[in-house]
Amino acid sequence: MQHTNRESSQSLERGNGNSERLAKGLGLFSIGLGAAELFAPGAVADVIGVRDDDTNRAWLRFYGLREIAAGIGILTQPRPAAWLWGRVGGDLLDLATLGSAMTSRNADNNRLGVATAAVLGVTALDVLCAQQLQEQENSDRADQSQGSARQVRKSIRINRSPAEVYNFWRDFQNLPKFMWHLQSVTAIDNNRWRWKTEGPGGMTVQWDAEVTNDQPDSEIAWRSVEGTDVYNAGRVRFEAAPGGRGTILHVELEYAAPGGALSAVVAKLTGKAPDQQINDDLRVFKQVMEIGEPVRSDASIHSGMHSAQPPTQRMGEMAWQQPGPVLP
Questions:
Q1: CA angle, corner 44, sides to 108 and 129, nearest 5?
Q2: ∠ at Cα 136 (147, 121), nearest 5°?
Q3: Which CATH architecture has domain 159-317?
Q4: What's the pTM value of the predicted model, to 2 decimals?
Q5: Contact 310, 200 (CB under 8 A)
């Protein structure tokens, strides 16, 4: 099975490589043809069998500019399928022009027939290459969308009742008090909130989210609204701890880093990825709920708002994923 998958992957890579080479060839052909039409319209008119006059020269120069633009787009853009489809549209216009020219008394129909056959052949190549690259680009987008979403799960015990913890969290404007990366959370209406946070490189990222489930003293769930640039979803459950020892807070987050996989790597390296931040955020939340403010250490090696704890202890607690122990 692994051998078969490897062969399929290699076959796909060869297919992608062939499409890219064909696209490059069509891009170079488009620039060459466009340059001929732009700078030698009289010679092109003679080759294809139309009368060499001012009107035809003007049209050929216009078509030349179109061909050059398409060629540059194919060769320079990371997703050239759209430019190839643009070439297909241009091919259809060329065919219509050649068909119209055949009705002219001064046309050389033999040369026009050869030119038409040549354009039909190039059109077939343009359509084939555009389809292959479009499928490849659609597949890449789907892979990026599925691969960019990350899930984070965390639990912590807080020495307060579920009602107290729920009431504090339900007012989302309180979240920046313990999530140091959040700049603000403001209400749009009773069910929607605008989140603004600091992203990698100091950039500011914002999105709108809506509450999807709200069960007092039990659970809150939210997700970013449709069409937002940042995908984000979360669920928080408030469970009474055994023996009346407060609340076990269960947090589940799912997010896609703005900027895709590269941005996610940068966020990891700079310590600003949500799965790294949430560990400190929840410890600060615990301190805010239990003593009213976060405990700060003057000798801390960490920047920003965080809970005071020995560095070795913190490093040992960074590697978490549910299922796992509840933080005390």
A1: 105
A2: 175
A3: 2-Layer Sandwich (3.30)
A4: 0.46
A5: no
Cα–Cα distance measured from residue 230 to residue 233, given in angstroms and rounded to the nearest whole number? 10
| Tokens at 17, concatenated | 């490589």
Angle at 221 between CA 219 and CA 227, to 5 degrees: 175
SS3 32: helix
Q: What is the pLDDT along the chain (328 residues), one digit of tens a residue?
A: 444 444 444 444 445 568 888 899 999 999 999 999 999 999 999 999 998 999 999 999 999 999 999 999 999 887 888 899 999 999 999 999 999 888 888 888 899 999 999 999 999 999 999 888 888 776 655 444 444 557 788 899 999 999 999 999 999 899 888 887 788 999 998 889 998 887 656 677 788 999 999 999 999 999 888 777 677 888 999 999 998 899 999 998 887 755 554 445 445 444 555 556 778 888 899 999 998 877 665 444 344 444 444 433 333 333 333 334 444 4
Peptide bond into 323 cis (omega under 30): yes
The number of angstroms, rounded, from the C-alpha of 258 to the middle of its chain's C-alpha atoms is 7
Q: Are 124 and 106 in contact (CB under 8 A)?
A: no
d(CA 176, CA 284): 11
Domain ranges of the chain: 2-145, 159-317
Residue type for position 36: A
